[in-house]
Amino acid sequence: MMDKTFDPAGAEARASAAWTHADAFRAGRPDRAGAEPYCIVIPPPNVTGSLHIGHALNNTLQDILARFERMRGRDVLWQPGMDHAGIATQMVVERRMAEAQEPGRREIGRAAFLDKVWAWKAESGGAIVSQLKRLGASCDWSRERFTMGERGAPDEQMVRAVTKVFVDLHAQGLIYRDKRLVNWDPKFQTAISDLEVQQVEVKGHLWHFDYPVVDEAGAETGAIITVATTRPETMLGDTAVAVHPEDERYTALVGSYVRLPLVGRLIPIVADDYSDPEKGTGAVKITPAHDFNDFEVGRRHGCRPINILDSEARIALDGNADFLADANPDAEALALHGLDRFAARKAVVALMEAAGRLREIEANTHAVPHGDRSGVVIEPYLTDQWYVNVKPLAERALQAVRDGRTRFVPENSEKTFFQWLENIEPWCISRQLWWGHQIPVWYDADGGVYVAGTEAEAQAQAAEKQGRAVDLVRDEDVLDTWFSSALWPFSTLGWPEKTAELARYYPTNTLVTGKDILFFWVARMMMLGLHVTNDVPFDTVYLHTLVRDASGAKMSKSKGNVVDPLGLIDQYGADALRFTLTALAAQGRDIKLSPARVEGYRNFATKLWNAARFAEMNGCALDPAFDPKAVREPLNRWALGEAARAVAEVTAALEAYRFNDAAAAAYRFVWNIFCDWTIELAKPVLQGEGVEAGLKAETQATIAFIIDQIAKLLHPFMPFLTEELWAIKGEAIANRGLLTLQSWPDLSGLADAEAEAEIGFVVDLVSEVRSARSETGVPAGAQVPLVIVGADAGVRARVGTWHDTLVRLARLSEIGFADAAPRNAAQLLVRGSVAALPLEGIVDLGAEVARLKKEAAKAEGEIKKLDGKLGNADFVARAPEEVIEESRERREAEAERLAKLHEALARLSEAN
Question: What residue ranges of the chain have pLDDT lower than 50?
Fold first, then answer.
């Protein structure tokens, strides 16, 4: 006997235990040996992470595909694992050490620190795995991988994969060491990727400085050129001033020099398109060592970069040969040595003001890069790093997409992919951290460089070069976390070994990930996958959007609008959260999530549970001999046909990655067709007196069969509820097995046009009457007559057959027939037939028309107001994205409301 209410927590525990016991999600099951493989690699979450709402969306969509394809008979491998998350993990462990008042990592040394990191991983890392299981993720958990491999296994396969790719790329001339600008985090003292940089809008200033122009002898001419900067301290490293080649104000000065105030260095005035004549003074100070754009300008004009900061972003002038060369600095400038960059900023401004070189201070709100974990301002910093020349790799990735070997969903993502890869820059892959894959490079005392898979191989290289054994020191840096992640699709399958898994599951099929890491991860997997394996890593990339709060604002801890998925699971169940995210996952459109939405889909689960319980209480039990194609009753034939239609719609939508459409089709069938109509229309058969036994038995068997098909249809979306229903409904069937390993429903051949014409007419007629009653203000409790106008024999027969049901469901006093519609009646068109709802004496038509016209005028006014806002270019440019989206949605809602008001007015006009 089913419980009165559905208990999500209990069902989740039971289903999870059953799946684990049966090893249900293991790839390569004996019964799938001859099946077509289907493989998804999970975007590896950080080992430090907890399940956030983005994870919930991403893994729900992956799980839907995995369960869908598993039920379609394929040998599914959903490959799980975690990323070692270099900077995040190191930060967590260092913070923990500080809280325990232990010595810092530099005091205890690298080996001892790494011991602590591995110990932390064993104790606390990977909490997200159990959280993903709570969500229902059907990964093959026996194959879980970690980007750092296993502790204490230097020959571990994941480590060998990373090392081999580095060594091979270096041998091919694609990895090299260079001095270039990087995003430098002064707190963590490491280069970081663009993804780890957050642009924060701050209220700052533009300081306008006058630089004196000098003649060929170095004497000041009396002319000045004014530059503006948001970072005055960097002027100490200026090596040029750039003006636009077509800016007539400065044409005569191009090729001249200015004397850099405070420093005394003579720097050229160069013509470069980078300078914008419309911005500021049109003249730009060029500091190649401290600005990415300036670095490129400096390269074009042969201006040397001068680094004036140390790794902690303090001014570094003492002993700085680059700074002192060709300079004659003031004593006050040299005294800036050792100052923090922000203290130095104030000091430089004060010195320029004292020297009469400060022309203006202008308020300026601008974006400043910050480290997403450290929270400090990031510095463009000139340092030696390891790089990959990705341009040749990018060409192959671009061609693979052009050839259709990999496609993007939505398709417009290809444009973004092309734009980035066609303009790709060298990839900085070294990080000044201890946690990560240590770069496989060794140095001898003379600066010799040895790139090798192991230290023994490096020693052999050195001995061959030097003719003797020499001492080597390994590069202290580690690889960018994205480097090992870029190998994920094939390293997790055993590469560089030629494993059976690699042969069977690579290339993988679908990658599901967020659009925000298209460049940082997807593109790099494409490039390295093609280069290393000579094949694309996946045939389809589905890029989902962001999950925002209910108002459309991006979630952030500072705003206090973060939605905790685990809290939602505790409150409403995993199935409700999963279905909500799926129902809202329209391609290319961000999701607005609120607890109320999740509660709504919890109610959907409750609705199905109650319908299944009603069926149980009315004798609807599975009949092993039931043949859906032998059903005779029109209602049952119609319900089976609608089920077939739903299966076809859900299948087509999932195949096209239209997850929201798949959810909508399943929802429509379960809630509207089955719960609202099939059950309701079947009640007289199930509960009435004197019903023919064969008819009742067929209806009971049909309903039980459909509940089974619903369980299958909904399983990819709501695995816990459906597994519970499957178990309960099949208690009397031996060896029924788990739902998750059953076949996807095949209801082909059950569409029945004759049954659809009959039952569809009943459904549409009741629906139209209900709408008309609501629109015209008929009191809810009032019973009104209905007149069928000009009915033919077929319509009369249908009305006769379903008379009692029509009266009950549409709240009618009677149903009559006439050749013409009576006066003061709202007319309804139902599948070619006209029905009339007399309103005289029931509704004050004049008052109702006046009310509706007043409401319509209000809606029109609101639409006009919103059109004015949305048509205002200044509003669209300045308003937050969520405000604009809310205005568009309000406009859409008002337009829909106005259409309904006009429809109601039209009905009342007909009645008049």
Answer: none
